[in-house]
């Protein structure tokens, strides 16, 4: 029976090719616009580490008190990052399963080949647990050990791109890299790890950048050699001391921090620890305001940092609005199309077709329009996703992809939405009075 | 034209009427808000920088070696001298940042050292006595820095500057009663800073939304930033020689000292590129909203044509009867035009509410500005014209239905 209805639908659609083409175009454009925006939204709002994000936490301590929110821009939020004193204290106390303080660096690397110019690289100064906490994959070697943190060792983990540039992609573990005029021993080479957003340090990277994470070196070593931070430095007051050391002694915040806590008990224990830390500091006279700490898990943290650009959300919303407008339009056209065939419906009903049969017949027709619109939509979505790089910044546009789930979703939305739009016209068609129709003819 | 019969006829096509009206309402709501977003972005994109954009370019310089502050100062002076010697270069200056860089330094500004809520958050530029001249910024009051005022500042060093040059926008914010020259303020400093000069416009380093309340508020202090890990050489080419200067400058710098890094990707940017990069997001959003507007308007027009054509086809007999009873071509044309006008007006009435509703939602969720009434009125006019334009062809076809149709079976 379905095959017969399909045949009927195709015949009916062929009878008014203009109207049919119009409906298919409308559905196609509506679906493509929303799917293109959705693909961008999906790319930037996805969970960067889905298997673990609920176990990763970002601590915040209100070290500035009321004067830190005096301009009213941040509400009652404590600073987004940690100052040096607290970051080091939290690392020393070591209350999480894994944890790492980190700050962004942008040193220069002098290639071993004397004919090459020095190159600028990006990266982070981290603790050894960074790699196991974030399940960072290695191509060669591995992370440095906790002993290297303690010894402030000159070791480095580089990414495969830098390894390609410096060592031609060979296993470079044990080789030496000159970073900011000092030698570091390579202990590991990353295996193409470049998560978007750069969730481990959104404060200093903004989440989406075209910047690369080329080098990771021990936090303790970077502090020793005075490797300056390349990211945001926020101060409630100007540091009294000078230089990078002055920054370390100040209350300026510039260090990102992440801790892994595996269960509820660990989370509440850590929260207690963090609150206790604040109270101790308050008791020692450092703060004179109320406790105002935060311990957000990664998804909540990314949300509070507004990592997903609001433009992306607005575009998605407007595109969804466009889809709805398209569906209303399609509903109107389907209504016109179906009711024009009142006499045909009258004949079918008079010959004994139940209302259900009329329903199925017309929903099949709507679905056929939807499927055709969906196929056009697929094509237009593909064009759209390749076209967004002309319109959106590269760091965002390059993340949007066409994949199987997007294709399936596009088709499903086109068919379902069009059938939904056809529901009322079909209902009207099924209400056609056979006697009346037969009489007027 | 009698409206009554049209309303009666519409009552017989309730569903179709409601669907067209709803379509128009949705279109109005989306188009108004999209046009408003476009307008805001375009206004942002066309903000004046205050600098001589046609002849400027910027080199982001970093050294491969770790120099002391004194060594860095010498390198900078040597580099600036090298740049100045180029035949195509007019002027060069070293700075911590430049207008529209995308990010930048900023300091809270207070009028008293112990003031809690800051008066402003100004963009903070460090520049020497050539900074303003190189950028081509217009000094409207006071004087430029003197060479002996310029102090060196190493990495995160604290340097108290007794003087600053500020923009007119900042002067107006800090001293609303006028006469900013000679007055003092604090920029997270313990000592006061005296305003010695006022420039007309100098755009902030950042172009973010957070700094919108402080738009155009920039200050320049007489400091030569001397950090080996990076600073910017702002170079002004002789008129019309930008391309030549941009070719020669990096070559000359590398020839002088090859242990430096000028990023091949974005180490060398003309100001046109700087502007292009700074507003990439805004331009993208404006284009996207523009595309959506066009598609939506096209779809709405197509929908009106489609449904009206259907109605005309359905009513051929009635039209024939009216023609037979003496209605003119014009009467029939007017009938369909008026019918569309009535539906459009109904849809637009709902659309105005929807438009403000959508805007209110965007305002609360994404801190957009309030939609001005003119946009809604503009949208109403656009959609009325669109509706009338779309209905014209089917209405014209209807008016050509011959009276003989009255005698033919439907």
UniProtKB/TrEMBL annotation, chain A:
Q: Which residues form the MacB-like periplasmic core domain?
A: 20-274
Q: How does it sit in the membrane?
A: Multi-pass membrane protein
For the keyword Transmembrane, the answer is: yes
Entry keywords, A to Z? ATP-binding, Cell membrane, Membrane, Nucleotide-binding, Transmembrane, Transmembrane helix
Keyword field contains Membrane:
yes
From the UniProt record, list the coiled-coil ranges.
none
From the record, give the transmembrane residue ranges.
21-41, 314-336, 357-385, 405-424
Q: What is this protein called?
A: ABC transporter ATP-binding protein
Tell me the compartments it is located in.
Answer: Cell membrane
Annotated InterPro entries = ABC3_permease_C, MacB_PCD, Macrolide_Exporter_MacB
One Pfam family this sequence matches = FtsX
- The ABC3 transporter permease C-terminal domain extends over 317-434
Give GO MF terms, alphabetically. ATP binding
Name the gene behind this protein. Answer: ybjZ_13
UniProtKB/TrEMBL annotation, chain B:
Which UniProt keywords are present, listed alphabetically? Cell membrane, Membrane, Transmembrane, Transmembrane helix
Chain segments annotated as transmembrane:
20-38, 285-312, 341-363, 375-396
Q: Could you confirm whether the keyword Membrane appears in this record?
A: yes
Signal peptide stretch: none
Q: Which Pfam families match?
A: FtsX (PF02687), MacB_PCD (PF12704)
Bilayer topology: Multi-pass membrane protein
Q: Which intervals hold domain MacB-like periplasmic core?
A: 27-249
Where found in the cell? Cell membrane
The answer on whether this UniProt entry bears the keyword Transmembrane helix reads: yes
- Describe the location of the ABC3 transporter permease C-terminal domain by residue ranges: 291-403
What PANTHER family is this protein classified in? ABC TRANSPORTER PERMEASE YTRF (PTHR30572:SF4), MEMBRANE COMPONENT OF TRANSPORTER-RELATED (PTHR30572)
Q: Which family is it part of?
A: Belongs to the ABC-4 integral membrane protein family.
Recorded protein name is: ABC transporter permease
At the highest ranks, the source species' classification is: Bacteria, Pseudomonadati, Pseudomonadota, Gammaproteobacteria, Lysobacterales
């Amino acid at each position: 029976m379905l095959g017969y209805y399909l045949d009927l639908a195709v015949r009916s659609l062929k009878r008014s090719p203009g109207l049919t083409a119009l409906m298919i175009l409308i559905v196609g454009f509506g679906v493509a616009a929303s799917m293109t925006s959705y693909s961008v939204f999906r790319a930037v709002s996805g969970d960067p580490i889905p298997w673990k994000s609920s176990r990763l936490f970002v601590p915040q301590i209100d070290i500035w008190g009321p004067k830190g929110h005096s301009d009213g821009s941040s509400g009652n939020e404590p600073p987004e990052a940690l100052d040096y004193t607290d970051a080091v204290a939290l690392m020393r106390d070591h209350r999480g399963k894994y944890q790492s303080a980190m700050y962004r660096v942008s040193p220069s690397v002098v290639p071993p080949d004397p004919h090459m110019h020095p190159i600028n690289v990006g990266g982070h100064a981290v603790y050894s647990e960074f790699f196991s906490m974030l399940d960072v994959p290695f191509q060669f070697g591995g992370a440095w050990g906790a002993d290297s943190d303690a010894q402030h060792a000159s070791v480095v983990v580089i990414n495969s791109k830098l390894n390609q540039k410096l060592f031609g992609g060979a296993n470079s573990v044990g080789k030496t890299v000159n970073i900011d005029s000092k030698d570091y021993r390579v202990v590991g080479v990353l295996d193409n790890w470049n998560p978007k957003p750069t969730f481990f340090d959104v404060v200093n990277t903004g989440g989406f950048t075209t910047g690369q994470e080329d080098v990771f070196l021990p936090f303790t070593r970077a502090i020793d050699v005075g490797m300056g931070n390349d990211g945001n430095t926020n101060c409630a007051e100007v540091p009294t001391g000078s230089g990078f050391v002055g920054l370390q002694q100040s209350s300026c915040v510039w260090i990102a921090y992440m801790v892994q806590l595996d269960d509820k008990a660990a989370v509440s224990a850590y929260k207690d620890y963090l609150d206790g830390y604040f109270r101790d500091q308050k008791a020692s006279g450092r703060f004179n305001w109320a406790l105002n700490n935060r311990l957000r898990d990664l998804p909540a943290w990314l949300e509070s940092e507004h990592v997903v650009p609001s433009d992306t959300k607005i575009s998605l919303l407007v595109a969804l609005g466009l889809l709805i407008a398209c569906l209303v339009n399609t509903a109107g056209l389907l209504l016109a199309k179906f009711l024009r065939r009142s006499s045909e419906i009258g004949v079918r009903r008079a010959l004994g077709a139940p209302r259900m049969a009329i329903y199925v017949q017309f929903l099949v027709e709507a679905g056929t329009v939807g499927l055709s619109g969906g196929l056009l939509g697929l094509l237009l979505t593909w064009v759209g996703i390749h076209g967004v790089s002309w319109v959106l910044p590269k760091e965002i546009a390059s993340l949007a992809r066409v994949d199987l789930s997007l294709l399936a979703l596009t088709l499903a939305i086109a068919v379902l939405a069009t059938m939904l739009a056809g529901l009322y016209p079909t209902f009207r068609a099924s209400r056609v009075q056979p006697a009346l129709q037969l009489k007027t003819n | 034209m009698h409206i009554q019969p049209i309303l009666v006829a519409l009552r017989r096509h309730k569903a179709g009427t409601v669907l067209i009206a709803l379509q128009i309402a949705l279109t109005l709501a989306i188009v108004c808000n999209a046009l408003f977003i476009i307008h805001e972005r375009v206004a942002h994109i066309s903000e004046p920088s205050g600098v001589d954009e046609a002849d400027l370019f910027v080199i982001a310089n970093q050294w491969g070696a770790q120099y002391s502050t004194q060594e860095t100062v010498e390198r900078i002076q040597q580099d600036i001298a090298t740049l100045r010697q180029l035949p195509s270069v007019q002027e060069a200056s070293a700075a911590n940042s430049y207008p529209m860089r995308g990010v930048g330094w900023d300091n809270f500004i207070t009028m008293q050292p112990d003031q809690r809520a800051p008066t402003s958050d100004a963009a903070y530029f460090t520049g020497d006595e050539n900074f303003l001249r190189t950028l081509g910024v217009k000094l409207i009051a006071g004087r430029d820095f003197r060479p002996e005022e310029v102090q060196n500042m190493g990495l995160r060093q604290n340097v108290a500057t007794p003087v600053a040059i500020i923009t007119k926008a900042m002067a107006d914010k800090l001293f609303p009663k006028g006469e900013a020259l000679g007055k003092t303020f604090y920029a997270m400093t313990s000592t006061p800073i005296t305003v010695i000069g006022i420039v007309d416009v100098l755009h902030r380093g950042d172009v973010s939304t957070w700094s919108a309340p402080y738009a155009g508020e920039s200050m320049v202090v007489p400091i030569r930033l001397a950090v080996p890990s990076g600073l910017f050489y702002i170079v002004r080419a002789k008129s019309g020689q930008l391309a030549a200067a941009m070719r020669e400058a990096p070559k000359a710098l590398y020839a002088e000292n090859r242990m430096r890094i000028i990023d091949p990707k974005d180490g060398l940017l003309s100001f046109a590129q700087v502007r292009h990069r700074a507003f990439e997001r805004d331009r993208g959003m404006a284009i996207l909203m523009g595309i959506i507007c066009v598609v939506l308007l096209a779809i709405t027009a197509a929908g009106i044509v489609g449904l009206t054509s259907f109605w005309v086809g359905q009513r051929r007999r009635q039209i024939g009867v009216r023609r037979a009873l003496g209605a003119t071509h014009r009467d029939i044309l007017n009938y369909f035009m008026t019918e569309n006008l009535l539906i459009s007006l109904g849809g637009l009435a709902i659309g105005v509410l929807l438009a403000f509703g959508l805007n209110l939602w965007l305002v609360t969720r994404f801190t957009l500005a309030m939609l001005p009434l003119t946009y809604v009125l503009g949208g109403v006019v656009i959609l009325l014209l669109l509706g009338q334009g779309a209905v014209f062809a089917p209405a014209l076809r209807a008016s050509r239905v011959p009276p003989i149709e009255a005698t033919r079976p439907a």
